[in-house]
Amino acid sequence: MSATDAPENGQLENGAKAIRCADAAHLIEQALETGCQTDRAIYLLALAYKRQGKGADARNALLRIANPDAHVFLQMGLLSLKEQQLVQAEQDFARVLQMDPALFAACFNLLLTRLSLGQIKTCAALAAQARDLAPSPEQRRLLDFLRAWLVSCGQRKHEGSFDLSLADMTPDEENALIDLARGLGRLEVVLELLQVLAVARPTSVQAQEAYIEVVLLKARHLVDRCEWTQAEKLLQPFVREHGIGKANQVALFNLLGCCTCLNQDSESAGEYFRDAIKLAPSDPRLQQNLALSLELDNRLFDAEPHWNRYFDLLDRHLPSPPGIANYPEQAAYVGLSRLAAKFAEKEKWPNAIQYQQRALRLRPRDTDALERLFHLYAQAKRPDDARKTLRQLQELKPQEPQYQLYELDLIEVNGLRDIEYLLGEIERVHEQYPNDARVDEKMVNTIGNVIPLMGNLCDQYTDQLNRVLSQIRRLPNYQINWSAVYDVMSDLQREFHKLRRITNRCLPLLTNEEHRRVVRNLAEHIDRKIEVCRSVRA
Amino acid sequence: MSTEHEPVVLDLAPPPREQVGPFLLLGLEKDAGPDEVEANWAKRLIWARKKQFRLALEDVNWAREIINQPEHRVRADAVSLNADTVDGMLRRLRKRFGAEENCPIGWHAVDVEKTHDEAFSVGTLPDPAEIRANLTMPRLPDGLPAASRLLESYVDAPLDPWALRLTPDS
To answer: Please, what is the angle between helix A70-82 and helix A104-116, to 10°?
Structure first.
């Protein structure tokens, strides 16, 4: 008796043995060709093929046997098993057992194939039959326990009780059975079996560990199906369970945290991730999970220390996908830039600048990072740092014309003079690079930022004008200081004229239709006000 | 119908795909290779078409698109939850329980091969020394003194069954 995947198979992979099997097959083929067409010779040929791993040839040879016996079907069943054709294997083994009910191999293989197919109900009787046929006392004892185990699965469902003999297992026997269950490959069956074993043997660490392992695996399968609620329900009862190994506990808290987070309870998720981190503080993935759950809970500042820990832990030990070079460094760069943007959104400039500087340290010659840092400095009203960054940018890319316009972002625009200076600079760069799309884009943005200020100034002047007009209307003629009114009107008219000139300069530079419409409306409004000033003066 | 004491479980709508992230959506670890990406995408495509998956077909395609672009993949990594720890505990469990794709069954089948005696009845083998002793050497012409030595060495040489060639073309 030998096992298909047992050491002998390993030896067969050894070159010398494989060559011998090939030679044997060749010899038998010659024998068959010369007329020795016996079932026995064909059977031997099939075995020689099987040992070489030529499953299809072996099956073809077996099919050529004129009067197949139980051993022939047993070999067919084993070939089906090797090809993972479990349904076919089950049919073959069942046939073998019908033909030769005393063949232990057929009974044992049929039992385990049915378990792998999830047909757990029919297996207890088969286990008893296999036990009676088992050649060694150890196998008989093991199959006895397997029978008791399978019977307990049915009993637990209907009566809530167990076969008491399960308590008599030695640790080695228990290990062997757990290994057998693990190898079944059908998660639902393994889960059911190990659940029964864990309840029947509450003091066995192996049984408990094996059970939590299969629970974790089942939960992961549910997560793969996006069934987070189901997975959470499955994992929840184990949270307060003591005696689970550390690695399993970390995986449990982490997976539960993920499910809770995806079920939109980021607060509880944070708690689970914290529990996991207590057990494995050096795992960057856990730190990232906690930081993300806190972010989802709108607690960016609480997430900050965990992001920092995550960045500290990102090193070469982080598993990287194939084909992406230097993945941890890339992950750190992207993460830091992202945090800088998050803080910038909240207008927390110092934090944003700090993360952007860290990102820049990872890629000192990255112009995108430098640009973002420049804008952050500009927003934070740190013109000196911004200018320094701009110089670096210009050194790295001297041919980029739009950087000349970046300088304008640092000008604090307070009045008409600033706007005029800004427009002058824009016109200068525009003339220098007339058809450069980047310059045009930057120019449109800069002018777009100035338009509201022009509107504000116009409103201020209009307000002054209205106040003077209202006083003129309200007061009797003899109380009005006409010379002062004249002076005010002259000043206002001058300012309106300046504003009007600016709108005229703006219009040819604008490509955005909305901007053009706003500026045209402003110009019409200014024209009306200039007319009012002129009429009052007259 | 639920009983009086049974808690009501609300089945929430899935969060936006960006929150789930492409990795969880395709059931991948963050270091998954292209073969794994394609296999998981294809599987979910079938699930989505059969309405066996909570998320929409376009989300499945979106996830694959993101993961196949290195730059987008790194960005998605930064905002995606990790179902497994860095030491790959769940992946190890998958292997241990044979729960991976195309994983062969993990139990050892009992293989009984009919022994040679059962397969072939070759009868009783004769004693080679007796046969050799009974061999009668043919009379050789005196003109060929070496022929006798050659024949003797041929008879004494061990027989190699693997070197036998039974058919003329072999």
So the answer is: 30
A133 in any annotated domain: no
Task: Count up the domains in chain A and report the number.
Answer: 2
Nearest neighbour of A223 by CB, restricted to B24, B52, B97: B24
Please, which residues 40-99 of chain A have a Cβ atom closer than 8 Å to chain B? 40-41, 43-44, 47, 71, 74-75, 78, 81-82, 84, 86
Residue with tokens 């190890």: B92
Kindly report the nearest CA distance between residue A86 and chain B, in angstroms.
Answer: 9
Average pLDDT over residues B99-119: 73
User: Radius of gyration (Cα) for chain B, nearest Å?
Assistant: 36
More confident residue, A432 or A494: A494
Is 0.90 exceeded by the ipTM? no
Buried b (16+ CB within 10 A) or exposed e, A225-257: bbbbbbbbebbeebeeeeebeebbbbbbbbbbb
**Domain of A520, in residue numbers:** 418-537
Question: Which of A107, A224, A259 is the best residue to mutate to test the B interface, defined by the most B CB atoms within 10 Å of its own CB?
Answer: A224
With respect to residue A347, please indicate whether it lies within any of the assigned structural domains: yes
Nearest to A70 by CA among A103, A104, A110: A103
Question: Residue A383 belongs to a domain with what CATH number?
Answer: 1.25.40.10
CA–CA separation, B54 vs A468, rounded Å? Answer: 68
Confirm whether A36 is domain-assigned: no
Q: Mark whether A394 and A425 lie in a shared domain.
A: no
Please tell me if residue B11 touches chain A, with a CB cutoff of 8 Å: yes
Q: Under CATH, which architecture does the B17-96 domain have?
A: Orthogonal Bundle (1.10)
Residues A425, A532: one domain?
yes
Interface touch A338/B166, C-beta < 8 Å = no
Residue A239 inside a domain? The answer is no
Average pLDDT over residues B42-64: 89
* Entry pTM: 0.75
